[in-house]
């Protein structure tokens, strides 16, 4: 990589720049952003080696052009650079919806456009938050089509792996459908569950009845609404399709309940359980995951005490969560240890320190 | 409490017995269970002071009769003891659905029946799992009605507080509606989300795209399907009603998306966000919750190292979770520290130990 252009120097563009310059200190990295402050800051932070005031000027001569602007700004940008970019240059982007984007990109530069979607960093914004390690160990989706040039795919792929990400190739429409199902519909669902639960119930009763399950299911409902609107807008068609199908699926479950077809409902719950366990199965766990649960005072040092005991015994803590008491002052610590022998040893050690340890039959590792 | 009868000596009945006898060593605690092995084991473990082979015999002479059998067995049990119980005795139960149960109980003994639902221990079964601390700090719902006698309510309430629980009074139908909305519908929803997400997507693509949000939302889909069928059966009418209304609510969201009424959708997401934050607001947090995130190797001792640093600095860890890398060998540790100064100090200490610490803008404390 010698000549790279970044169109957009916010969180994602800035992080790409920082990571690329760390990996290839000699790279000629030109940056453009319609926000002059952002591009100045990118230059100051070393996320680019030269700032440009014009996208066509910035893109000319680059082997790789990375488009990292909000979805609504991509089309005008493509229009203004299509003539200027080298005929051999690769164009790629980082947008969260891919089908329309890939059509637009291929209309501009044919098979040299490769859609991309790094799965990291969406919660924060701006060059200030840029981080060369943002993509470390994250998935970086690429969405090649039959017309994609293999050289362009290789270049986009190299960008991702250089930044520490692993490439996953998915068809553009399949991508949009998958993110709708894995992220966008779950988000709407969590908000709808909170909405339904909180309606006409006093807080004390709600809190008394809401267990850890409700807390987990609705956690993402606390996310930034403005950010979510922009995400949902960008993937409107796929979200709508999946949301309607999801509604049908809940309707099917309701019909089973209405007609008391409990065997079918149980079979359906079992299939989902298996799918969930398989999806998040941890590949290399040593020993059977075993859950422990204990009440702890809510003060500094308690977690250290518990986890230090585990460390001393060589017990690897696979998962841990803290359930605060609604009354404050104390909470329940739930942890999963690899191996039942290790769990037993840890349990004994904690009992010796005065903790009362339970052995709940819970699956929160998964 | 001098004369108490336990009808049903499984997990819940056995735990009540152990807790009561610890609090009142002199209590005359008679137990009955249609499973003779269970009642024998209860006697052996000291969860009851005398075993009886007949429910009417067991209930005669008791001031308090606690019914802790599966929902389907309650009506015949009420029929067989109604004549035998003292006219001043209090009857209470522990079932997870209350409207029908309260009607049946009041038909048998009038206002001396008080419906109850301790919010603890539902995942395990049997006297083997009984634990006198099972109800410690849990909510114990009581469902009085206008005909409930105040003496009976006081007795049921004393039972709950003796066992360390806190009493929350809710109308029986309101209870059923609330658990449907807070627990039963979220459970079905989590299963339906997994079902939709896993259909027609290869595991690698699914894993690449599924973030921590999806993991949280669907965690409870790994629960025991058989147990859930019995819960859903017991609250069929309220579940059905809430599930249909929930479907309508998702349909409304879909309509907003279809018609691009983004402002309304954002307002709806914002209301849910506020409701979620208010519901689980921790009452006594010292300082602003501040999130940190770092990659850690997946081996014993790492959690101890991190949490010990926090303890040394007096930084209280409010929440913590481990996101395992899908490739194994390492994971991301996300924690929330009370107070931004404390978070900054911990971040510096961890950086000094070679960790790279991020400051994600996430809300998983909530």
Name given to the CATH homologous superfamily of the largest domain in chain A: NAD(P)-binding Rossmann-like Domain
Helical proportion of chain A, percent range: 40-55%
> Can you tell me the CATH class of the largest domain in chain A?
Alpha Beta
**Fraction in beta strands of chain A:** 15-25%
For the record, give the distance between the C-alpha atoms at the N and C termini of chain A, rounded to a whole number: 40 Å
CATH topology of the largest domain in chain A: Rossmann fold
Total strands of chain A: 12
Count of helical stretches of chain A? 14
Strand order of the largest sheet of chain A: 3-2-1-4-5-6-7-8
Quickly give the CATH architecture of the largest domain in chain A.
Answer: 3-Layer(aba) Sandwich
The helix-and-strand class of chain A reads: alpha/beta
């Amino acid at each position: 990589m010698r000549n790279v252009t970044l169109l957009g120097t916010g969180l994602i563009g800035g992080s790409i720049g920082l990571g690329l310059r760390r990996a290839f200190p000699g790279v000629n990295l030109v940056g453009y952003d319609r926000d002059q402050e952002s591009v100045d800051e990118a230059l100051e932070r070393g996320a680019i080696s030269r700032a440009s005031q014009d996208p066509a000027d910035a893109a000319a001569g680059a082997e790789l052009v990375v488009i990292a602007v909000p979805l609504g700004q991509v089309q005008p940008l493509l229009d203004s650079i299509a003539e200027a970019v080298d005929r051999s240059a690769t164009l790629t982007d980082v947008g969260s919806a891919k089908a329309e984007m890939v059509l637009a990109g291929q209309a501009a530069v044919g098979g040299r456009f490769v859609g991309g979607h790094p799965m990291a960093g969406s919660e924060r914004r701006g060059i200030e938050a840029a981080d060369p390690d943002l993509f470390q160990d994250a998935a970086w989706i690429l969405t090649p089509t039959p017309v994609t040039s293999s050289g362009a795919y290789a270049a986009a792929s190299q960008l991702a792996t250089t930044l520490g990400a692993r490439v996953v190739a998915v068809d553009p429409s399949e991508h949009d459908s998958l993110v709708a199902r894995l992220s966008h519909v779950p988000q709407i669902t969590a908000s709808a569950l909170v909405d339904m639960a909180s309606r006409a119930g006093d807080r004390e009763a709600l809190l008394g009845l809401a267990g850890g399950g409700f807390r987990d299911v609705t956690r993402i409902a606390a996310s930034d609404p403005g950010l979510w609107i922009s995400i949902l807008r960008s993937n409107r068609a796929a979200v709508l399709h999946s949301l309607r199908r999801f509604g049908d699926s809940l309707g099917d479950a309701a019909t089973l309940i209405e007609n008391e077809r409990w065997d079918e409902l149980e079979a359906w719950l079992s299939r989902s359980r298996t799918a969930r366990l398989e999806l998040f199965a941890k590949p290399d766990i040593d020993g059977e995951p075993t859950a422990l649960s204990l009440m702890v005072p809510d003060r500094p040092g308690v977690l250290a005490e518990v986890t230090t005991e585990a460390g001393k015994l060589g017990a690897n803590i696979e998962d841990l969560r803290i359930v605060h008491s609604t009354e404050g002052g104390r909470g329940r610590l739930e942890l999963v240890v690899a191996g039942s022998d290790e769990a037993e040893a840890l349990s004994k050690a904690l009992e010796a320190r005065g903790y009362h340890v339970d052995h709940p039959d819970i699956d929160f590792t998964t």
